[in-house]
Design goal:
By secondary structure, the protein is mostly helical. The protein has a single domain, classed as Orthogonal Bundle (Peroxidase, domain 1). Helix content is 49%, strand content 0%. Helix 1 runs antiparallel to helix 7, helix 2 packs across helix 3 and helix 3 packs antiparallel against helix 7. The longest helix is centred in the middle third of the chain and has 22 residues. The two termini are 26 Å apart. It comes from Streptomyces lateritius. It holds the Pfam family CRISPR_Cse2.
């Protein structure tokens, strides 16, 4: 079982860290064509756009037990925090599984200032250089105005399908933290602001399909180191 080691930090950072740990483990094994990982991703994809509690088959895979077992110098999380954390991890893992399907490189890529991989930057990369594609921009805006988390993840699912088609990477640990933040009062406004900043952080010389790099996590902008990509792929 994964154990999260950290100094006291916002729950959002813990959610991002746990998501990163789960995805990097599966991602490396999936790219190595390990049967159990391939099967796990197929199961996770079926939960995309649905609430965590609606898919009992994924309870084992979306395991947030490390958040129940924090170090003794850290306070225990409340039931509300744990419930929101589970929904956030579930949303990020299932969207990543959809994104990773039949791709031979890792679609989870930690964010760096010099190579942003937040949601806004990823959508911007789908657009022609120097131009704004209004239908794409409106997809991001529509996601940002979702009335609840279930609707949000369903709208994000549509965006992820486009990212997968173009093999544009995304930081799913960062996204998990944002899905957690979204569920709190005022959280949607915070996340929308972050997506807008990410959209404008994109630079034309930044190609997400180039060799991945690693980053270190913080509570909002970055994630933690990821495993290197391999070239093995699976078409499941």
């Amino acid at each position: 079982m994964t154990t999260i080691h950290s100094t006291p930090a916002p729950v959002r950072a813990l959610v991002a860290q746990l998501t990163h740990q789960r995805i990097t483990s599966w991602q490396g094994r999936y790219l190595a064509d390990e049967a159990k990982a391939v099967a796990a991703l197929a199961r996770l994809r079926r939960g995309s756009g649905r609430e965590a509690g609606q898919v009992p088959d994924l309870w084992e895979l979306v395991d947030v037990s490390p958040l129940h077992q924090l170090p003794s110098d850290q306070r225990h999380l409340s039931e509300g925090e744990l419930a929101r954390a589970e929904e956030a991890v579930h949303g990020a893992l299932t969207l990543w599984a959809l994104h990773q399907q039949a791709r031979s490189t890792g679609m989870h890529q930690p964010h760096l200032r010099e190579r942003p991989t937040g949601l806004g930057a990823a959508v911007r990369r789908l657009m022609p250089a120097g131009e704004i594609d209004e239908p794409l921009r409106k997809r991001l805006v529509r996601a940002g105005t979702a009335p609840d988390l279930t609707t949000l993840t369903q709208r994000l699912r549509d965006i992820v399908v486009l990212l997968r088609r173009e093999e544009v990477r995304l930081d799913y640990a960062l996204l998990a933290g944002q899905l957690y933040q979204w569920q709190w009062p005022g959280g949607a406004d915070t996340v929308r602001t972050e997506w807008g900043r990410s959209f404008h952080a994109w630079r034309g010389d930044d190609d997400p399909r180039q060799k991945p790099t690693a980053a270190s996590p913080d509570a909002g902008d970055d994630s933690i180191d990821t495993e290197p990509d391999t070239t093995t792929k699976d078409a499941s």
